């Protein structure tokens, strides 16, 4: 009996390790595949040589078979930053999804639940329609700044609102998020209503659909530092995240005051989400569905859930980006549409499937 | 470990729930608190383990001044088994019990063989070894509560607070839980709703009414027909059960 149980545990462990290795390999292969497709189609073989050659600084891979010199430029300067962005944002979204679900102890939570999306939209709408500037570069920066400022302002507002009257509880957080979100949405509508700017309204609409089109190496460092620092931090917080699942009362008897950690985690998650929203707009569903898929596969223990969610989130968004570029010829679909279109059937499948009951 | 509570007062909003309560749990004694619903038992226990900080009073556990010590330090000495509560996410029984090691771990420290052994031992004491890999949410009420008890045992506390731990449980599970706690041989302060179990397990009893201690003493001294009538607003007769030789009760409205 006992040895049987022991071996089933070991099997699970082996399955988990293999799953992680598989995900890492899949991410590497997807990255190379992803840079090989686009307006100019570059054969996979050559893309691999170029990527290998560049990252190893010429030690591995050779450029002999590469047909055109411009390929290296296209891959390394145009497409690679976008792939890196997709990976980082996918990781960031599922990270914040896992953290938010733990913070509010609710499987429905996603990175945007605390009004961050509506706040970011309001900021972006304001920046586009009322404006911080009119030059292309400046206005691009203006939208990012507006979205970030809006996202951060709403998170702080939600946090303050839910702290009134003592402890920050999960229910107060969710309700404050809903209220502030509704307020921000109506303010955005107000700005749109009074704006006499068809072009601007179109940009607002595009912005809310999410896009990785503006990725460039110059934006990678900030994104990478914030997302990776967040990932690194939360990878080691599994103990607190696990006790969060038990609720305030039990956590206190285990020596952890959730009220404090909730605030801290929420500020960090808001910072990450705000940065992502600023650069890529709203990309829905990733932060909701990836944690659930990983919970279904590996259980709710955050020690396992977190690394798996990060990798799967990155991989998922990379593929969503690939599809957004190839599905309709010569048109780039907004990635937010794709994540929802892929995400919803997956989610429906999980609802229908009996084995997984959303952790609860 | 000894627990000394002095002039404890707790308010919820403006309403005073716990009014000037003092009590003592001697080394390794099983002390019970009885009283009707809403008399402030839970609130008092929560004030003692600081889930609901009291407005006045002192709580001293061994040599720790509870109200002035960090939650982490307290939870290394004090375990709590509360009323049944719901969870939205699932863990396996083993993961759940492993969380009991939290107070003894630094934030980044991983669980080692010692922790695994302690968890194994706690599972054995609560008869849950075969349930190790089961999902917590799939368990019955009694098994869930045993898992929580196992988690508290894995905490290796030197004192335990029980807040009606056997609520909603069938008789066998009630007895199993209390038997298991009794065997630990540590100081226990327990709110109990069943007077017969209180009489059977407690070395000393406090009876609470309207946020105050109404009376205290050994079960025989406290559980008299007069006191019970006064506490619960019912008619009551007590007798000596001829089979168990323990205190029995007959109630009537």
UniProtKB/TrEMBL annotation, chain A:
Key word Membrane present: yes
GO cellular component, one term: plasma membrane
Gene3D superfamilies associated with the record: ABC transporter involved in vitamin B12 uptake, BtuC
InterPro entries: ABC_BtuC-like, ABC_transptr_permease_BtuC
A single GO BP: siderophore-iron import into cell
Pfam families per UniProt: FecCD
Transmembrane segments: 14-35, 83-104, 111-132, 138-161, 173-196, 216-236, 267-293, 305-327, 333-352
Family stated for the protein in its record: Belongs to the binding-protein-dependent transport system permease family. FecCD subfamily.
Stated name of the protein: ABC transporter
Automatic annotation (TrEMBL), chain B:
GO MF entries: ATP binding; ATP hydrolysis activity
Record flagged with keyword Transport: yes
Alphabetic keyword roster: ATP-binding, Nucleotide-binding, Transport
SMART domains reported in the protein's UniProt record: AAA
All residue ranges annotated as the ABC transporter domain in the record: 3-235
Family matches, as InterPro entries: AAA+_ATPase, ABC_transporter-like_ATP-bd, P-loop_NTPase
Gene3D superfamilies for the chain: P-loop containing nucleotide triphosphate hydrolases
DNA damage as UniProt keyword: no
Record-given protein name: ABC transporter
Originating species: Oceanobacillus sojae
Lineage: Bacteria, Bacillati, Bacillota, Bacilli, Bacillales
């Amino acid at each position: 009996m006992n040895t049987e149980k022991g071996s089933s545990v070991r099997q699970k462990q082996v399955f988990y390790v293999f799953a992680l290795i598989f995900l890492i390999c899949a991410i590497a292969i997807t990255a190379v595949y992803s840079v090989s497709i686009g307006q100019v189609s570059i054969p996979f073989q050559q893309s691999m040589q170029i990527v290998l050659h560049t990252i190893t600084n010429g030690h591995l891979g050779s450029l002999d078979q590469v047909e055109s010199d411009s390929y290296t430029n296209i891959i390394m300067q145009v497409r690679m930053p976008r792939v890196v962005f997709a990976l980082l944002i996918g990781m960031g979204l599922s990270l914040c999804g896992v953290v938010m679900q733990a913070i509010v102890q609710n499987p429905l939570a996603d990175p945007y639940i605390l009004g961050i999306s509506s706040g970011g939209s309001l900021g972006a709408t304001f920046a586009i329609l009322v404006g911080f500037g009119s030059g292309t570069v400046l206005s691009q920066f203006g939208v990012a700044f507006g979205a970030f400022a809006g996202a951060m302002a709403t998170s702080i507002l939600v946090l303050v609102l839910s702290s009134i009257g003592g402890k920050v509880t999960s229910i107060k957080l969710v309700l404050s998020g809903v209220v502030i979100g509704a307020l921000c949405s109506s303010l955005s509508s107000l700005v749109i209503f009074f704006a006499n700017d068809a072009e601007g309204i179109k940009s607002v609409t595009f912005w809310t659909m999410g896009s990785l089109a503006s990725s460039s190496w110059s934006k990678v460092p900030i994104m990478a530092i914030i997302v990776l620092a967040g990932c690194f931090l939360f990878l080691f917080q599994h103990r607190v995240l696990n006790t969060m699942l038990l609720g305030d009362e039990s956590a206190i008897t285990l020596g952890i005051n959730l009220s404090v950690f909730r605030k801290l985690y929420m500020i960090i998650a808001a910072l990450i989400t705000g940065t992502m929203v600023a650069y890529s707009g709203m990309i829905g569903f990733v932060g909701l569905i990836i944690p659930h898929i990983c919970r279904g596969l590996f259980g709710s223990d955050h020690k396992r859930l977190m690394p798996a969610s990060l990798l799967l989130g990155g991989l998922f968004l990379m593929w969503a980006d690939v599809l957004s570029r190839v599905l309709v010829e010569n048109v780039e679909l907004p990635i937010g549409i794709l994540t929802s279109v892929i995400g919803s059937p997956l989610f429906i499948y999980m609802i229908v499937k009996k084995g997984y009951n959303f952790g609860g | 470990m000894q627990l000394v509570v002095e002039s404890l007062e707790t308010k919820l909003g403006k309403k005073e729930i716990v009014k000037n309560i003092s009590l003592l749990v001697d080394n390794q004694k099983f002390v019970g608190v009885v009283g009707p619903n809403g008399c402030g038992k839970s609130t008092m226990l929560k004030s003692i383990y600081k889930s609901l900080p009291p407005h006045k009073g002192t709580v001293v556990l061994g040599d720790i001044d509870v109200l002035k010590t960090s939650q982490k330090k307290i939870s290394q000495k004090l375990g709590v088994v509360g009323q049944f509560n719901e969870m939205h996410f699932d863990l396996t029984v083993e993961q759940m019990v492993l969380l009991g090691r939290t107070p003894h771990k630094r934030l980044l420290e991983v669980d080692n063989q010692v922790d695994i052994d302690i968890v194994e031992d706690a599972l054995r004491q609560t008869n849950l070894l075969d349930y190790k890999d089961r999902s917590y949410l799939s368990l019955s009420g009694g098994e869930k509560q045993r898992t929580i008890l196992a988690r508290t045992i894995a905490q290796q506390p030197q004192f335990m607070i029980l807040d009606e731990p056997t609520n909603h449980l069938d008789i066998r599970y009630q007895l199993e839980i209390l038997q298991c706690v009794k065997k630990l041989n540590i100081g226990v302060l327990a709110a109990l709703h069943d007077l017969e179990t209180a009489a059977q397990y407690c070395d000393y009893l406090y009876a609470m009414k309207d946020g105050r201690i109404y009376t205290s003493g050994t079960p025989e001294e406290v559980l008299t027909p007069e006191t019970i009538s006064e506490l619960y607003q019912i008619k009551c007769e007590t007798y000596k059960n001829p089979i168990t030789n323990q205190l029995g009760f007959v109630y009537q409205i």
